[in-house]
UniProtKB/TrEMBL annotation:
Keywords: Phosphopantetheine, Phosphoprotein, Transferase. PROSITE patterns: KS3_1 (PS00606), KS3_2 (PS52004). It comes from Claviceps africana. GO terms for molecular function: 3-oxoacyl-[acyl-carrier-protein] synthase activity; fatty acid synthase activity. Residues 392-587 form the Ketosynthase family 3 (KS3) domain. CDD domains: PKS. It holds the Pfam family SAT. Signal peptide: none annotated. InterPro entries: Ac_transferase_dom_sf, Ketoacyl_synth_AS, Ketoacyl_synth_N, PKS_Beta-ketoAc_synthase_dom, PKS_NRPS_Biosynth_Enz, SAT, Thiolase-like. This is Ketosynthase family 3 (KS3) domain-containing protein. One of its GO terms (biological process) is secondary metabolite biosynthetic process. It comes from the Eukaryota. SUPFAM superfamilies: Thiolase-like.
Length: 587
C-alpha cells in the first residue's frame, strides 16, 4: 500500500496576487471565519504602516511616506498594488502572507488533518516561509487565524526593514532583481564577480534564488544596469535582454546589514502567544534545504529564523526539491512508493518541478482540489447545500428605522399593528386650523374636503447639532430631509454600523471613505411650495431640492458611493429598494 503524504508549498512570490485577493474577497462573503481574518489582517497592516509612516512615532523605520495606510480593506490594497499606486515590497509581502494564511485556513476548514496529521510536509520559499511557519504551528483553524495575524505583522515589519535597507544603499526607483537564464550557477557567480569589481560591498549584485538554469540576481538598480554591458563572445547565452524580476528591495543577501529579529517578530514573541506555540512537525525551508527547522521549536524562534533567512540566505529551490524527494523516498522505503498530494498556496504551476521529480521516482502525485467560487461569481458545480446554492437576490436587511402614524419606532409601529388600532383622527391644530380650509360644499377653490388624516407625532423634532446643521438651515429644511437623517442614523445603529477608523485607529473620517451608496424614493415636495409662498431664504435650494436628501446622507457619513433620488410616483420607494438590491447583487 502506498504511503500517504501531503505536501504544503508556500511560494515566495505570486504574479497573480490581485486576482487571488479578489478571489478571497468573494469567498469571505459566505465564510465568516475568512471574513474576520481578512478584516483583522487589514487592521494589522494598517496599524503597522501607520506607525511607520508617522514622523512623530518612535518606530525604528518611520517616515515610510510612500506607503499608503488608508485603504478600506485587503481587496482595495490589492487593487492599489495592481495599479502600481503603491509599488512596494511591504504591500506585496503583506498581501502574499495574508493570502497564503487565508488559503491554508480554507483548506483546514475542509480537511482539519492538514494541520495536525504526521504525514504533512510544509515547505516555505522566501517570504512564504513566514506563512509556512504559522501553519506548521497551528492546531486548528481558529488558532491558525489568531497566529496568522502575528505572521502578517512580522511580514510587514520585515518588508519595512528591507525597504529601508534598499533606500539606504541606493535611493532610486528601479527593479532590484533580474532573471538570468541559460547559465549554470557557478558561471553566474563568476560573471557577477567581474561586475562587482571595484564596487562597495553593499552595492554588489548577488544570486538570491536559483532553479534549474534560471537564476535570480539581486542588487541595486545601478549595479544591475551594468549587467547589460556584457561580452557576448564569452557568454552568448546573455544575448537576450535580462528581464526584470518583480522585487523592489533587496532580499536573500548575506552581505546586507543584519535585521533585528526581536523587533520584527514583536513583543508577543518569547513569553506571549508566539512563545507558547510550537511547530508540530519539521518545517522545510528553501534557505536551508538540508536542515529543516526542527519540530517543537517555538513559533517565536521559528519566525526569527524565517525572518533572518529571508533577509540573508539564498533561496535554493533545486536543493529543496531534491531534499524533499529524498525525504519522501526514505519514508516510503527503497522499493516503496508514496501517494503525494501537493497543496500550493499560490499558482498551481509552482508545484511542477517537485511533481516532475516525484513522478520520476515512481510516486503518484495529485494536486489538491481547487475550490470553486461561490455563485454568482464562479462555476455552478458546487454542493447543493453550499454557497453555490445562494441566490444572487438574497440580500440581508440588518437595520431598519422609520417614522409612522403615531409611531416613532419600529416597536411602536408593530404594537400598533398588533392591536389593530386606527390612527385616523381630525387634523390637529398644531398642523393648521382645519376650519380655515375645510369646505364640504366645494364652493371655495382648492378647499379641503376632509377633516381627518393620519399623522406623525413629532415631525419637527430634529437634532441639528448631531448632523452639524445650523438652526436657521434646519428650519428651512424639508421635514422629509430631517426625518431621513434621523431614521438613517437609527437604522445604522440597529445594524451595528460605525464609521471605519482612520489609520490612527481613532479618527472617524479617513481620507478614503467607504464605497456605500444611498437610494431614496421621493415623489412630492410640498415644503418647496410652502417656501415659495412664504418667501425663500439663504438655504432654500439645499433645503427643498430632492437630490439633496440622499446627498446629505452621503455627506454626513462620508460615504463615497453614489446617491440617488428616485421618483416613479407611488412606486418610488419600491423602485429604490429594487435598484439598491440589484446594486448589491452585482457586487
Amino acid at each position: 500500500m502506498d504511503l500517504q503524504r501531503h505536501v504544503l508549498l508556500f511560494p515566495g512570490e505570486s504574479a497573480e496576487l490581485p486576482e487571488a485577493i479578489h478571489d478571497l474577497a468573494v469567498r469571505c462573503r459566505t465564510n465568516t471565519q475568512l471574513r474576520v481574518l481578512l478584516s483583522d489582517a487589514a487592521a494589522v497592516i494598517r496599524q503597522e504602516l501607520a506607525a511607520a509612516a508617522s514622523p512623530c512615532s518612535d518606530h525604528p523605520y518611520r517616515g515610510e511616506g510612500e506607503v499608503i495606510s488608508d485603504f478600506e480593506d485587503i481587496a482595495e490594497l490589492a487593487e492599489w498594488h495592481a495599479e502600481q499606486r503603491c509599488p512596494s515590497l511591504v504591500i506585496e509581502m503583506a498581501l502574499l502572507v495574508t493570502f497564503q494564511i487565508a488559503q491554508a485556513l480554507m483548506l483546514a476548514e475542509v480537511d482539519g488533518s492538514i494541520l495536525h496529521a504526521e504525514g504533512v510536509i510544509p515547505i516555505g520559499f522566501g517570504p512564504g516561509l513566514v506563512a509556512a511557519a504559522v501553519v506548521t504551528a497551528a492546531g486548528s483553524s481558529s488558532e491558525l487565524a489568531t497566529l496568522g495575524l502575528e505572521g502578517i505583522r512580522a511580514s510587514v515589519r520585515l518588508a519595512l526593514v528591507l525597504s529601508q535597507t534598499g533606500r539606504n544603499i541606493e535611493d532610486r526607483a528601479g527593479a532590484w532583481s533580474r532573471v538570468v537564464s541559460g547559465l549554470a550557477t557557478q558561471d553566474v557567480e563568476a560573471w557577477l564577480a567581474e561586475t562587482n569589481a571595484g564596487l562597495h560591498p553593499l552595492g554588489h549584485a548577488y544570486i538570491g534564488q536559483s532553479l534549474g538554469d534560471k537564476t535570480v540576481v539581486f542588487g541595486p538598480p545601478s549595479t544591475l544596469g551594468r549587467l547589460d554591458r556584457v561580452d557576448l563572445t564569452t557568454r552568448p547565452a546573455l544575448a537576450l535582454a535580462l528581464p526584470d524580476s518583480p522585487a523592489c528591495a533587496p532580499l536573500y543577501g548575506p552581505h546586507l546589514p543584519p535585521v533585528d529579529t526581536s523587533h520584527i517578530v514583536g513583543t508577543s514573541g518569547r513569553g506571549g502567544l508566539l512563545g507558547r506555540s510550537s511547530l508540530r512537525r519539521p518545517l522545510w525551508s528553501s534557505h536551508r534545504a538540508l536542515e529543516p527547522i526542527p519540530k517543537n521549536k517555538t513559533l517565536a524562534a521559528a519566525l526569527c529564523l524565517a525572518v533572518s533567512q529571508i533577509a540573508h540566505r539564498r533561496s535554493q529551490i533545486d536543493q529543496t526539491i531534491d531534499a524533499a524527494v529524498a525525504h519522501l523516498q526514505g519514508a516510503a522505503g527503497p522499493e516503496g512508493t508514496a501517494a503525494v498530494t501537493l497543496h500550493v498556496m499560490g499558482p498551481a504551476c509552482f508545484a511542477s518541478p517537485l511533481r516532475h521529480e516525484l513522478e520520476k521516482k515512481g510516486h503518484t502525485v495529485h494536486l489538491g482540489p481547487r475550490m470553486t467560487l461561490p455563485e454568482p461569481f464562479g462555476d455552478a458545480d458546487g454542493d447543493e447545500d453550499g454557497v453555490a446554492s445562494v441566490s444572487r437576490h438574497e440580500v440581508a436587511v440588518v437595520g431598519m428605522a422609520g417614522r409612522f402614524p403615531e409611531s416613532d419606532t419600529l416597536d411602536e409601529f408593530w404594537h400598533l399593528l398588533e392591536s389593530g388600532q386606527t390612527t385616523h383622527r381630525e387634523i390637529p391644530p398644531s398642523r393648521f386650523h382645519v376650519d380655515d380650509f375645510y369646505d364640504p360644499t366645494r364652493a371655495t377653490h382648492n378647499a379641503l374636503l376632509a377633516r381627518h388624516g393620519c399623522f406623525i407625532r413629532k415631525p419637527g423634532h430634529f437634532d441639528h447639532r448631531l448632523f452639524n446643521i445650523s438652526p436657521r438651515e434646519a428650519l428651512q429644511m424639508d421635514p422629509v430631509q430631517r426625518m431621513l437623517l434621523m431614521a438613517t442614523y437609527e437604522a445604522l445603529e440597529m445594524a451595528g454600523y460605525s464609521p471605519r477608523p482612520g489609520a490612527d485607529g481613532r479618527s472617524p473620517r479617513p481620507s478614503s471613505p467607504p464605497r456605500i451608496a444611498t437610494y431614496f424614493g421621493q415623489t412630492v415636495d410640498d415644503w418647496k411650495t410652502i417656501n415659495d409662498q412664504q418667501g425663500i431664504d439663504t438655504h432654500y435650494l439645499p433645503a427643498v431640492n430632492r437630490s439633496f436628501a440622499p446627498g446629505r446622507i452621503g455627506h454626513y457619513f462620508q460615504w463615497a458611493g453614489g446617491f440617488y433620488s428616485i421618483d416613479t410616483g407611488c412606486s418610488s420607494s419600491a423602485t429604490a429598494l429594487c435598484l439598491a438590491r440589484e446594486a448589491l447583487a452585482s457586487g
